Amino acid sequence: MRVGLIADIHGNLVALEQVLTELAEESLDDLVCLGDVAALGPQPGAVLARLRALGCPVVMGNVDAWLLAPPTDARADELDIALARWCTAQLTDSDRAFVRTFAAVVERPLGAEQTLLCFHGSPRSFDDVIVATTPDDVVDAMLGNARATIFAGGHTHLQMVRRHGDAHLVNPGSTGLPAVGPAATLRNRNVRWAEYGVVEVDGDRVDISLRRTPLDVEKMVALAYASDMPAPAIEWWVGLWGRA
């Protein structure tokens, strides 16, 4: 069983298409998106339309929830609020209905009673942060009673493979915005790539592959400037790719 994992696209259609082009050569049995698909980037509606056409399951991420209820309190800064409002304004009723179908967790069979459990932050909350240094007891609390051969999450924008008991924890990184993540985590620098993952289980053999693929940054920046993102937000987004 071969499953592709994408996460944290954040309205970056150029990055999504690049990753999907590579995944099309992988002979996948399944594809799962681990959330945060549209908000913060210049093409939120186009990304939602592409995912809807793919028909793959999508997990609800923390900024996906913003599209249904934009943040207005101290948990988000002014830039986040401005971007969430702008992205929400770009969506159609059909887009919002699609976002409402996103699930808290998605479970996929891997054969022989083995399973893949997908979420955004953790099965407990899309705001949870699991990184390589998160203590085992904290991870246990986040996973709760969930059981799986492979646990797959996003949110941190950091690629990771980690053993936890008899299971593996996997984060494929960020497809569309590898340069940022939760404030408590490390940051990638000089980013010019998109990230994704492929997991394969064949009997007792488990293969987890984390990928990076180069991006046409100039094309992405041109599309961003061609959008009507609010000025502070677009300068922030373009700056993440080493441009201004």
Short description:
By secondary structure, the chain is an alpha/beta fold. The chain is 31% helix and 22% strand. It has a single domain, classed as Metallo-dependent phosphatases (Purple Acid Phosphatase, chain A, domain 2, 4-Layer Sandwich), CATH 3.60.21.
Describe the protein.
- There is one protein chain.
- With 244 residues, the chain is α/β, with parallel strands linked by helices.
- It has one domain: Metallo-dependent phosphatases (Purple Acid Phosphatase, chain A, domain 2, 4-Layer Sandwich).
- It is built from eight helices and nine strands.
- A five-stranded mixed β-sheet has the order 3-4-5-7-6, with no helix packed on it. A four-stranded mixed β-sheet has the order 2-1-8-9.
- Helix 3 crosses helix 4.
- The N and C termini lie far apart (43 Å).
Keywords:
244 residues, alpha/beta, Purple Acid Phosphatase, chain A, domain 2, five-stranded mixed sheet, globular
Which consecutive residue ranges, at least 5 long each, have pLDDT under 50?
A: none
Main beta-sheet annotation? 5 strands, mixed
Which overall shape is indicated by the principal axes computed on the Cα atoms?
globular
Strand order, largest beta sheet: 3-4-5-7-6
Blueprint (SSEs and pairs):
Elements lengths: L1 E5 L6 H11 L6 E4 L10 H11 L7 H7 L9 H13 L2 H7 L6 E6 L2 E5 L17 H8 L6 E3 L7 E5 L2 E5 L21 E10 L2 E10 L2 H10 L4 H9 L5
Parallel strand pairs: 1-2, 4-5, 5-7
Antiparallel strand pairs: 1-8, 3-4, 6-7, 8-9
Helix pairs in contact: 3-4
